[in-house]
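In the design runs reported in the main text, the only information available to the sequence generator was the tokenized backbone. The following block is the verbatim input for one such run; it is reproduced so that readers can re-run the procedure and compare outputs position by position.
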């Protein structure tokens, strides 16, 4: 209804002392009825969902796990010695022509990524390291997330795991093996993004 018809309808109701709702219904009979607007219904639904979510507290993490993507986390350590050299490893399981890289492995369930670096370096080389700052976080891969940390050599005796590692070298950042993984060069140079 336009404004003029509303004013006329109001005046008519006041003069006749009639209920407005009767006239509005009669005037609007030629139109389809409008859907009822219930401003409180959205709030009620939100409150209901909030209560439901709180009731699920004992199993919330399981529900979130089921509803979200699953990833494995590859963790890399950029291990430097006191002379600034970087530990490079030739990995048995990596593709030919790209076997050289930094110490790395997959995080175990519930494991802190820094602890993954310490564990993987120890397993692959027998060396002890202290983990420093995060230098890479790479997501957007199909089922994998990659993180890398700086690490400092503390000690230990170099003993290679023959199942995983073929060879180890301490390299200057400008003298890496030719068939090194592409992501390693920027990490060794100290760049935080590959």
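Verbatim output:
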């Amino acid at each position: 209804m336009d404004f003029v018809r509303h004013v006329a309808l109001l005046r008519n109701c006041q003069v006749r002392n009639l209920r407005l709702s009767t006239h509005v219904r009669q005037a609007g009979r030629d139109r389809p009825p409008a859907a009822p607007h219930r401003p409180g219904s959205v709030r009620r639904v939100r409150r209901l969902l909030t209560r439901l979510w709180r009731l699920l507290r004992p199993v919330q993490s399981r529900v979130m796990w089921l509803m979200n993507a699953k990833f494995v986390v590859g963790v890399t350590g950029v291990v430097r010695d006191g002379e600034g050299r970087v530990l490079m490893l030739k990995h048995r399981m990596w593709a030919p022509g790209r076997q050289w890289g930094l110490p790395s492995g997959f995080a175990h369930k519930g494991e802190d990524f820094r602890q993954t670096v310490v564990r993987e370096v120890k397993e692959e080389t027998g060396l002890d390291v202290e983990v420093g700052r995060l230098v890479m976080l790479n997501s957007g891969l199909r089922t994998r997330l990659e993180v890398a940390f700086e690490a400092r050599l503390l000690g230990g005796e170099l003993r290679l795991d023959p199942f995983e590692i073929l060879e180890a070298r301490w390299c200057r950042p400008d003298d890496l093996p030719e068939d090194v993984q592409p992501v390693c060069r920027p990490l060794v140079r100290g760049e935080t993004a590959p």
